């Protein structure tokens, strides 16, 4: 991703930053002399805001970008490496441990990694940081946490609340300026004058300059005068009512002002708003209003009230409204979420609401499973990518609280996300955990088996994939499970291809194509046509292979399917190239690349660009060919095993490299190759698609 002249994923600032110049400069100075800096402080003090501002100001100093990893949605430490990999421009499909993949990726990069909200994963964060810093000499890490990570070379910057004026001059403290700024956003035209100055200063003193507490208080000025606001905050030790203070006094301690502000905000909410606040705390990352209705509504909280309650909580700054490309969503600040989770547990509803959350995302996964082969693939990709934090939370709950076969069902139903959308590492992690935990034979286990087998194929693990597919096929045939039988045969065919056995691959694929009994699930036939076309083409039977790929295109067009069709186009491009038709090969490869780029399918992109290189050679475009080889090499490195280890594809790639080097000479080849390899991915793909 590239924004202007720098790389990274830092969010823009939605509100004006008040004060904190000294803290930001201090963090920048520490990063100048230390590779690990942790910004610490109590909840709500503004650690994340300071860290993100410092990172943004330093972004031009890091050639490979500044990358934010939001850790608050994570439930367990095992998910940390996947979250880091997801945040980076890295899509590794290999079977290597993800920490090893990260270490290799970062090894020669000059990059700043921002780990935000580490306190609930301190040990996992410390271990990951030690590993990555040891592997990557030019990597620097900026963390935020309520406590230090405890690493040897860590430099800690502790953040205090904003200064509060001790006398009558409000300009002596940034706390009052923050209150005024946020109040003006809540109540247009709001200003400080002689009538309200003392009350506003009392509010800031009472809240001890804590930014989050001040922002929550500012939201109340829509309905309360400054004087009334100050009065309501006076009894700060009783505003939490029946809340369990022992929970808040755990290490690290909650700042008393934050207890006051959040507890008071809770009291001022209606009973329905309080209940929704507590129940919505089960969501990780963003909150979809439709999901809230399904997860949180019941007789006490009717679904028809949910939209209005969400708006009301946003007005009170309990929720933050965020319009996205996937529809309107809400977000809850980490500290607000934690308080809600505590209240939910106090209500005795924690387990029940988390089950409903799990069941909602299981139903969503099933809908995606049923709809993926159709015209809405892009929409499903966008939606599931946005919902990844919630999917993780649902899977982790299903694994920790095993009931029925929910973990297997959810992990298996997400096959279309793990396999086509490039989340192979994480998909394998959850599929293997679910399969190891629940060994009872049944449809859920069989689906998870063939899904895992396909993931293993894409990681180049042909033998493991074949073993799992054979086991799945045996059980499926014995139970009359047509869908699992066909998918297991497809997985066997794909595994045979990457192991170089095209005859066995074609045989397994034909069993699917020729079978009269079919399931309602049409994907097996699409995948079998793909596998058969690839195996026959690689064996030199081009007419037979192209016929299968034409059949695939027809089927995909009937369903409005894009993802599998694009793989068929890549294979068709390879066949056209082998038949001496480079112009047709280029057209098919470009068509495939457009789809794979939209779906962020790194494997498909790399395969398509590998065809565009020899097509450029045939057109006499040596420099373009070398740049394409470099670009493909960049992507293959993020995928893992080059050419998925397929012997024929490896040989074709090497032959092209040799020919282009001969056309250009070593020096010109190396320069063009490096230009392609080092280019920004967006620009590289645009260049690849510009070929005529």
UniProtKB/TrEMBL annotation:
Annotated Gene3D superfamilies: P-loop containing nucleotide triphosphate hydrolases, Tetratricopeptide repeat domain
Domain of life: Bacteria
Molecular functions per Gene Ontology: ATP hydrolysis activity
InterPro entries, sorted: AAA_22, P-loop_NTPase, TPR-like_helical_dom_sf
The ORC1/DEAH AAA+ ATPase domain, residue ranges: 35-134
Pfam families given in the database record: AAA_22
Protein name: Putative ATPase
Organism: Nonomuraea rubra
């Amino acid at each position: 991703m590239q924004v202007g002249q720098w790389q990274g994923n830092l969010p823009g600032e939605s509100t004006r930053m008040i004060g904190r110049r000294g803290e930001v400069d201090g963090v920048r100075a520490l990063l100048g002399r230390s590779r690990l800096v942790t910004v610490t402080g109590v909840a709500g003090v503004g650690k994340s805001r300071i860290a993100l501002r410092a990172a943004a100001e330093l972004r031009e100093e890091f050639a490979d970008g500044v990358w934010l990893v939001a850790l608050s949605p994570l439930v367990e430490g095992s998910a940390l490496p996947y979250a880091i990999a997801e945040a980076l421009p890295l899509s590794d499909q290999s079977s290597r441990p993800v920490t090893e993949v990260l270490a290799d990726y970062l090894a020669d990069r000059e990059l700043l990694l921002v780990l935000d909200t580490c306190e609930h994963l301190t040990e996992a964060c410390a271990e990951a940081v030690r590993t990555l810093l040891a592997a990557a000499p030019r990597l620097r890490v900026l963390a935020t946490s309520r406590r230090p990570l405890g690493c040897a070379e860590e430099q800690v910057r502790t953040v205090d609340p904003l200064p509060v004026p001790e006398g009558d001059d409000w300009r002596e403290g940034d706390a009052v300026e923050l209150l005024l700024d946020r109040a003006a956003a809540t109540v247009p035209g709001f200003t400080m004058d002689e009538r309200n100055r003392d009350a506003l200063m009392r509010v800031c003193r009472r809240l001890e300059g804590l930014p989050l507490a001040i922002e929550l208080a500012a939201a109340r000025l829509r309905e309360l005068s400054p004087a009334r606001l100050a009065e309501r905050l006076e009894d700060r030790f009783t505003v939490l009512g029946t809340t369990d203070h022992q929970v808040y006094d755990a290490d690290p301690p909650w700042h008393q002002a934050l207890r006051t502000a959040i507890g008071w905000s809770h009291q001022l909410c209606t009973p329905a708003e309080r209940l929704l606040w507590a129940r919505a705390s089960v969501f990780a990352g963003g909150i979809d209003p439709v999901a809230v209705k399904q997860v949180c509504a019941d007789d006490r909280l009717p679904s028809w009230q949910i939209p209005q309650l969400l708006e009301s909580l946003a007005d009170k700054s309990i929720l933050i409204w965020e319009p996205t490309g996937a529809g309107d969503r809400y977000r809850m600040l980490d500290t607000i979420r934690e308080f809600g989770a505590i209240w939910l547990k106090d209500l005795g509803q924690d387990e029940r609401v988390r089950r409903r959350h799990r069941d909602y995302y299981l139903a969503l996964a099933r809908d995606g499973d049923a709809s993926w082969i159709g015209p809405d693939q892009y929409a499903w990709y966008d939606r599931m990518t946005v919902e990844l934090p919630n999917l993780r939370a649902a899977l982790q709950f299903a694994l920790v609280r095993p009931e029925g076969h929910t973990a297997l069902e959810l992990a298996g139903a997400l096959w279309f996300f793990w396999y086509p959308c490039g989340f192979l590492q994480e998909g394998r992690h959850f599929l293997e955990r679910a399969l190891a935990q629940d060994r009872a034979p049944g449809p859920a286990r069989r689906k998870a088996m063939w899904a895992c087998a396909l993931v293993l194929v894409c990681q180049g693990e042909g033998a493991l994939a074949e073993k799992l597919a054979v086991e799945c096929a045996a059980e499926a045939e014995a139970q009359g499970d047509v869908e699992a039988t066909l998918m297991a045969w497809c997985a066997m065919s794909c595994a045979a291809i990457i192991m170089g056995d095209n005859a066995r691959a074609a045989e397994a694929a034909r069993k699917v194509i020729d079978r009269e009994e079919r399931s309602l699930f049409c994907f097996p036939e699409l995948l079998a046509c793909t596998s058969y076309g690839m195996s026959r083409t690689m064996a030199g039977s081009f007419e037979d292979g192209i016929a299968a790929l034409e059949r695939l295109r027809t089927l995909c067009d009937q369903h409005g399917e894009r993802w599998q069709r694009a793989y068929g186009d890549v294979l068709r491009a390879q066949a056209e190239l082998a038949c001496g038709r480079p112009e047709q090969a280029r057209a098919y490869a470009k068509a495939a690349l457009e789809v794979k780029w939209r779906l962020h399918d790194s494997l498909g992109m790399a395969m398509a660009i590998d065809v565009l290189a020899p097509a450029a050679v045939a057109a006499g475009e040596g420099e373009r060919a070398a740049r394409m080889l470099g670009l493909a090499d960049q992507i293959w490195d993020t995928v893992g095993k080059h050419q998925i280890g397929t012997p024929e594809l490896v040989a074709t790639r090497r032959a092209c490299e040799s020919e282009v080097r001969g056309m250009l000479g070593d020096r010109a080849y190396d320069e063009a190759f490096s230009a392609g390899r080092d280019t920004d991915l967006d620009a590289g793909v645009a260049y690849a698609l510009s070929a005529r």
